[in-house]
């Protein structure tokens, strides 16, 4: 089975994630359950976990669940008022460089 699945649980997205400031992604700690063709796995998600970290947790149990995962970051900017805008593009990758923008 293939699909485009997103973490829409309270501990992974929503208003808290959208309102998070720089250095915080809004992910709260919790338990996520993955049901696969081979079985079920429960994963402890830490506060501030990245999508990459969550995908790694899923991969560690893929032999038991049959589920694999990948992660990528996307953003959709929507400007509702005409005018000039400024934003900074940042990353938490090491080594840390100056913000773009």
UniProtKB/TrEMBL annotation:
It holds the Pfam family Flagellin_IN. InterPro entries: Flagellin_hook_IN_motif. GO terms for cellular component: bacterial-type flagellum. Keywords: Bacterial flagellum, Cell projection, Cilium, Flagellum. The lineage of its organism: Bacteria, Pseudomonadati, Pseudomonadota, Betaproteobacteria, Burkholderiales. It comes from the Bacteria. It is found in: Bacterial flagellum. This is Flagellin.
């Amino acid at each position: 089975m293939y699909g485009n699945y997103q973490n829409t649980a309270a501990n992974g997205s929503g208003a808290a994630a959208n309102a998070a400031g720089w250095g915080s992604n809004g992910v709260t700690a919790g338990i996520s359950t993955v049901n696969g063709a081979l079985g079920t796995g429960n994963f402890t998600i830490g506060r501030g976990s990245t999508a990459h970290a969550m995908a790694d947790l899923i991969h560690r149990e893929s032999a038991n669940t049959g589920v694999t995962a990948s992660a990528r970051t996307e953003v959709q900017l929507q400007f509702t008022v005409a005018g000039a805008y400024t934003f900074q593009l940042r990353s938490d990758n090491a080594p840390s460089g100056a913000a773009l923008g």
